[in-house]
Specification:
228 residues, paralog of FGE (formylglycine-generating enzyme), 5 helices, 11 strands
């Protein structure tokens, strides 16, 4: 695959998505303006070219980058924005001693950012009504077909809006805090990964992790607001 394809951004139409949490049995609806979402997860080649780092445990230019924390993903978004002459979406500063970084999102910025989980789920569903946008073996790398390893991006059928690997291969970091009252600053992960069973690879599944967490089945894709 031409490495330039990892920059491809898909225009996602506005809409409404209903999110749900199995643990709390809560559901809530979110209205979304149009936005753009990366057609593929960020690859190792793109991550290395922008950040100068190669954090992944596997090795391959077109493999999705993994072993990256939520903080790593935020810093990458800013670096990519600067590289392309855009205004960074995030302001990053050290918090008080012993605490995590303070990160604020400037919603007026035209730069790259992480999708919200509502944007992620709306993009994943792509107007389809079921838990998946196609037969799982045709659209996702997961435990039953991955040979327990990550695979190059774009190897499975995209969803109706042209988004690849929304389910399976690697989990995607999202911007949102999962549940501040119970889990503090833990952030949302979506999509399932190459080591997960089929039930984790559904559009509605939410997972949480500390923003400093790094593991070989978690990566990310970038978003941009469509007003710019």
């Amino acid at each position: 695959m031409d490495t330039r394809q990892v920059y491809e951004m898909i225009a996602v139409p506005p809409g409404q998505v209903t999110l749900s949490d199995r643990r709390t049995r809560r559901s809530w609806s979110v209205e979304l303006a149009p936005y753009r979402l990366g057609a593929f997860p960020v690859t190792q080649a793109l991550y290395a070219r922008v950040s100068g780092l190669w954090p992944s445990s596997a090795d391959g230019d077109q493999l999705p980058v993994e072993g990256v924390s939520w903080w790593d993903a935020v810093r990458f978004c800013n670096a990519l924005s600067i590289r392309e002459g855009l205004t960074p979406a995030y302001s990053i500063r050290a918090a008080r001693e012993g605490a995590d970084w303070d990160i604020d999102w400037d919603r007026s910025a035209d730069g790259y950012r992480l999708p919200t989980e509502a944007e992620w789920e709306h993009g994943c569903r792509a107007g389809t009504p079921g838990p998946r946008y196609g037969p799982l073996d045709e659209i996702a790398w997961y435990r039953d077909n991955s040979q327990e390893r990550v695979h190059s991006v774009g190897g499975k059928r995209p969803n109706p809006w042209g988004l690849h690997d929304m389910l399976g291969n690697v989990w995607d970091w999202c911007w949102d805090v999962y549940d501040a009252e119970v889990y503090g600053g833990y952030r949302v992960l979506r999509g399932g990964g190459w080591f997960d069973d089929h039930w984790s690879c559904r559009a509605s599944v939410r997972r949480r992790s500390h923003p400093g967490y790094q593991v070989d089945d978690v990566g990310f894709r970038v978003a941009r607001s469509a007003t710019h």
